[in-house]
């Protein structure tokens, strides 16, 4: 198995159609929607120069500063995993499609989307898995001249009925030398019939109440669990999750603890579906 001394690892196959989505619903996060390919890049003599970014979205469709922020975010994330200055993978990141909204999108949001896409691509490489999807049908492009690339989310996929589960509460608190602390309360509700989304996470908490990296970690745990019991990288149902209360500790909280809290919250919501609607096809 390759280790850090083997960096950069030359991957054999590209990871296609990696989606990154940030919902601006709730007014806390910026809006960003992007999808990218992560392709093998030949390794030259300089083993530190093994990451490249290519933007294929026209400026009329996506402001260049947003595209540049996405590329910078993805490359920054990959470089954070470097060993002695060498990134883990030799990759070309190709931004193939993106959407933005007036007054709701900014460079920080697209940088965030780039980091998220890089993490998902790394997961796919390490586990030989397909990317997890957020969007089933993409919004129409802004300009008629731009023809968006096709993507492979199953168009005939139908979400099973999902009934709202309110105030799913998770508390992780372990007092020890390496403490664990994550408290979160979220609502799980169905997305509207015919929605283009497969999964939407709405954070209703400002950074002053919960740092964005912990909200991101909670979302990751929820989405991971919903997709784990689904098929083909799709969630088990089209769900909107609203995180409306949380507590954290400046010493004992971590991204790992909030990821686990997200997993437990999703598992509890699915358990509730199975108990109250036993013929809905949900795991108990």
Automatic annotation (TrEMBL):
Domain Translation elongation factor EFG/EF2: 166-275
Segments of skewed composition (Basic and acidic residues): 254-266
Gene3D superfamilies reported for this sequence: 3.30.230.10
Protein origin, superkingdom: Bacteria
InterPro entries noted in UniProt: Ribosomal_Su5_D2-typ_SF (IPR020568), Ribsml_uS5_D2-typ_fold_subgr (IPR014721), Transl_elong_EFG/EF2_IV (IPR005517)
KW rRNA-binding (keyword) present: no
Key words, A-Z: GTP-binding, Nucleotide-binding
Chain residue ranges for the region called Disordered: 254-284
Identification of the protein by name: Translation elongation factor EFG/EF2 domain-containing protein
Native source species: Catellatospora aurea
